[in-house]
Predict the structure.
Amino acid sequence: MKSGNIPVLNVEEDTIPLAYENVIEAVWEKGVSIRTEYDRPEDPPSRDATVIIVVRHPFGQPRFHRSFADGLGGLAEYVMEVVHGAHDYWVKPVEEIMKGKESKDTRWTYTYHERLFEYRIEDKVVDQIGYLIDKLSSTGYSRRAQAITWNPKLDPPTDDPPCLQRIWGRLCEDGEGGYIYNMNTHWRSRDLFKAWFENVIALTTLMRNIAEAIAKKTGKEVRVGRYVDISDSLHIYGSYFREIEGNPEKGIKSFFEKLKSRSFEERTWDSDFIKPHFIDDGLGKGLRPMLEREKEMPQKVRKAVEEELRKMEKKDYVV
Amino acid sequence: MGIFEEIAGEIQKGNAVSVEGLTKKALSQDISAEDILNNGLVAGMHTVSEQFKNNEIFIPEVLISARAMNSGLSILNPLLEESKVESKGKVVIGTVKGDLHDIGKNIVAMLLKGAGFDVIDLGADVPKEKFIEFVKKENADIVGMSALLTTTMLYMKETMDALQDAGLRQGVKVIIGGAPVTDSYATQIQADGYAADAASAVDLSKKLLGQ
């Protein structure tokens, strides 16, 4: 694209894996070539677009695509990080974050959970998801139920500021006496090929938890509605082009050939298949190994992960 | 289909329960642990490794296959130790101190194991002292270091210096990898090699040990 305008793409699908495949194809074919701070000099410029994605049924099956950059146990641990704050204790103190690139402390500058549930502003700590749940429980149609992550004091000097910027939610009556929880997430920047899918699994799990919390508070049925995912810059890094394009001379398949050579069922997994791997992937990852391995995890968080493990062990629980 | 092909096929499917059952079945047929290892488990994981190299399968599938291989290996290990079967080489591997990212390192460890190497995985956030300790203790042939961040990558040099100071550098090959790592960085810190991806790390390890 030569106009200098970043393309704006729309993808709407029933399930997460369908949306994922379509958006990779859309950004690859219609995205603009542009450099990012993470490209290395030898890499081609990234492929990039502003993208709005609608997933009509976030828990529709099959819910899991097989193309992501981790194992299933690792994905389970990431979900625990976002939803329950399993790695909030890896965030370094504010004084260290403020040193920016000068800091020698390699711990993280944020986690999404920490920003959403314990946002620090001046001397206060704000549970924004708690507010969102309270707000929608009292005024379901409110347009003010949101939670932000960006901290204008802490984030600009860091190398790796948050990608997720904001979560916004609203209830709509379902016409049967209950409600549908609609959620939008807004992202500054996003690695489509190696982060989007895992982000969405975690955020839709959080979405369901919010719906359940509102249901508990109001005594009404609250079902998970459509999930909308808006990225200012959704990109495929130049360093991934080798995997996307393949190399026919060396017999390396392109990503799209890989998709074509299998049926949709062979490119995805449903939640029932995933569940035992989430509990313990047999390679040291998953909820059980995580609880054994991470001795420093605060007690409150540990209890939440243990509770999640108990739920997962029940037959009807959908991961 | 023979039992080795069955084991290899179930590894490719990632079916840990079947691999465990078939390994036991093979042993009950008086097939040696070494033969089951090389012709069943390693052969199956070799195919997975090749498929991964050729971009035919996805990362989580590689790990599910590795889990299946481990289920067979856990049955064979005591027997292999008894019969003193030699591995292709001993690799001490870890993500360097300050870095908690371990997926790349885990895949390298799995593929090395699948290629017949004896792998001691030290996990993530590994201090140089721990690398030194295990290189000595295990008499390692190769040290593999991984880092995902430009800030933590620098710790590879510290570990290299520590290996030198401990008098271990001559006896061990060092390979490095991870998103910010480059071939020129490997040269700069005098590592023996850099691998851009997991499959190349296996090829590099074999090459460095003259296999």
